[in-house]
## 1
Amino acid sequence: MVALVFLSILIVGGVAIFAASQTYLADVPPIPAREALWAVRRTPGMTFVDHTGGIIATRGAKYGRRVSLAELPPYMIKAVLAAEDRRFYQHGPIDLQGIARAMRQNARAGRSVQGASTLTQQLARTLFLNRDPSLKRKLQEAVLAWRLEQMLSKDDVLELYLNRTYFGAGAYGLDAAARTYFGRPASTLTLSEAATLASLPNAPSRLALNTGGMPAAWARAGRVLAIMREEGWITPQQEAFALAAPPVLASSTGGEGAYSYILDQAAGEATTLAAGVSPDLVVRLTIDTVGGRARGTRTTGQPGRAGGPGARRRDPGHGRWPGSRTQRL
C-alpha cells in the first residue's frame, strides 16, 4: 500500500513537472554560438569621426572597447563581484545559499529587499530575456544560466557580463561607461570610480551619474567598498582613501553643433549600406573640425569602437565585435 502511494506521488509529480515545462520552458530562447554572444541583441550605435579619427559625435547606444579581465585593475573586478555576486566563483549558475539568505531577509522585512540572481542569471536576462518579474521569466533565466555555464568558463561569463551590461546614459559595457562618465578607458579607473561604476547595473537609469544619480550611486559605492574590505579584497587604508576621493565626472562634450545636418545625411547613408550587418558603426567623414569645413562625405562604416578617445586608433585585438564588418560607403 505504501509503495502504491509513493508511486502515485511520483506519477503526479512527474505530470506536474512536465506540465510546468510545457507552460514555462517550451519557448526558452536558444543560445547561439559562443562568439555570437558578443553581438546578440545589441542596441545599434553610431559614432562619427573626422578625417583624423577625432570624435565629432555619437548617436544611439555607446560602446567602448571589448576589454578582457587581464586589462582591468583587479579591484574593478572585485568591485563588480562585491556589488552583484560575491560568491560567483564558489557556486554554480544558481546560488541555493543565496536564495535561502534572500528568503530570510525578505521574510524579516515583510517585502522584497534582496534578490538572489547570480551574475550568470543576470547575464542571461541581459542577453535573452527582460525584467518581467514573473515565474516564467525566473525559470527561463535559471535554465539559460545553466546552459551558459555549460558553454563558458566563469572568467568568460564575467568578461561577457562586463562588456554587455548596461551602465546608464546609453553606455553598454564597462569601457563605454568609463569613457562616458570619467573620460578615460576602463583600464585606468581608480578604486572609487570602480566602486561607483559597479553600483550602477542594479538600477542603471535611476543611478546614471550624469543625470543626478551620483549621490545615490556614491552611497551604494560605499557599501561596495565595505564588502570588498570584509572579503579581504582591499585594505582598510585603501577603503578610507577611496572614500576620501569621490569620483569626478568628465566635462560634457557639448553636442553636435553645426554638424547636425551633415550627420543626419551620413547616418542615413551608412545605415542603408550597412544593411543591418554591423551591430554598430563608426562613420568616418572628411570633415575638418578645426577649420569648420566639410570637404566631402566619404565615410567608412567600422564596427564597435564608440565612446571616447580609444576610437581614434584602430585596435585589431579588441575593438572589433564578432559578426560585424568594415565597409567603405
## 2
Amino acid sequence: MRAFSEIGGFFLKLWFSAAFGQKQNHHFAKGDNIPIARTGGRGQTSIVIAEFAAKYRFCPQCGEPVDALLERPPFKCAHCGLVLYFNPAVAAAALIFNPEGKILAVKRARNPSQGKLAFPGGFIDADETAEEAVRREVREEVGLELERVEYLCSSPNQYPYQGVTYLVLDFFFLAWTQETGRVAEPGEVQSLFWATPESITPDDLAFPSLRNAWSYYQNVWRPNHPAL
C-alpha cells in the first residue's frame, strides 16, 4: 500500500509551509500548531475545516499576509484571488471473498489502530478510478488479482498521520477471487487470514468507516443477496 506521504504529503507540506509560515522563509510561525481534525459527526467536521482554514496566516500562492482570519472555508486571498477548498483525500478498500465464501481480513502492522482488523486497500492516485485503485492496492498489499469488483458503499473517515489527521472519504467494494495464495506487504500487514463473515465483529475493525461498511454489508447488502 502506498503511504499517504508518498501521494500527497509532500505537496501538503509545501502548502502548510507557505500558508502558516513567514513570507520570507516559508517556515511555520512560532507558536502555531498544525491544525488537527477531531473525531465527530458531519457538523463537527465542518467546524474542524473552519478551524483549519482560520489557521492560514499567509497565502500559499503569493505569500502575502492574510488580511483577516477566515471564519469559514474556503480560503480566499484578497491579493491574488486564490480560492482554496479543503476537500478530503479518497481511498478504496475491498471485502474480498474466496470460493468458500470467506473474507480476507488484514491485521494492521502499525498505527493508527495497530493490531486491529481491516480490509485490503489504500489511497487513490490522481489518475485512477476507485475500481482501478482497489485492484492495484490489493495486488500490492496481499498479492491477489481480483476477478470481479462491485461497489458497496462509501463512508467518511479520519486518518492520523505524523501529527496531522486527514479527512478521508473511503470507498468500499465487494470483490471475488479464485486465488488462495497471498503475500503480506512488509511493514503494512501483520498477518492475513480468511474469516467467515460471522466471525468478524465491529469491535475487531480498525476505523469507524470500516465499521460502517461492515454494518451496511451485514444489514443491507447481504440480506438482499442470500445466494452470494
## 3
Amino acid sequence: MKINEKSEFTLDLKTIIMVVGFAISLSATYFTLKAEVELAKTLPKSEISRSEMDLKMELISKTVLSNAEKLGILLLLVGQTIAQTTVTTESALNKHTKINGIVVVEFWAKWNDKNACSFLKDLEDCNTVRADIGVSTTLQEKYDIEVLPTLVVINNGVEISRFTGNILFQLNVKKQEVQAKIDSIIISKFE
C-alpha cells in the first residue's frame, strides 16, 4: 500500500485522546527537564556534592514518573470497562458514586421505562448506574430529581453535570453530548 495525498485515515476519539495525552505528557517532561537544565546552568561551577546530585536526580525522576503516571491513568481510563448496575437504595448508590472516576447515574422509574436512556450502556470511559426512584423516594430527594429520566455525571464523588427529561418525561439529550462531557472531564485531568 502506498501513502499519498489521496490516502484517507480515520481516528476514533480514544486514539485521539491517547495521542493528546501522550503529547501533553511528553511536552511536560521536556519543559520540566529544560527548566532543570537552565537552573543547573545558573549554579556555581564548583563541584556539586553527592547529596545535592542525588536530590536533583530524585526531583527529575519524580517529574518523569509523575508524567508517566498521568499517561498511565489516561490509558487506563481509555481502556476502562463499563459496568452498569441498577440500585434502589441510597447506600447502594453511594457505593458506585463515591469511587474515583466517572460515573453516569440515570434516575428513572419502571412506570417510565419506555423513556429510559437507551444509550446509557454505550457510554465509554465511565461506569453507569441506574437508580430506580420509583422504589426509593430518598434518592429522589437527595439528588433533587424533579423529572424522569435524569442523567447525572459524577466525577470522584462530585456532580459535574446534569441532563434532565422534559415535561413529557423524555430525555432530550444525545449520546454524543453526554460522551462529550465525559471526555472533557478526562481531558481536564491533563490541563
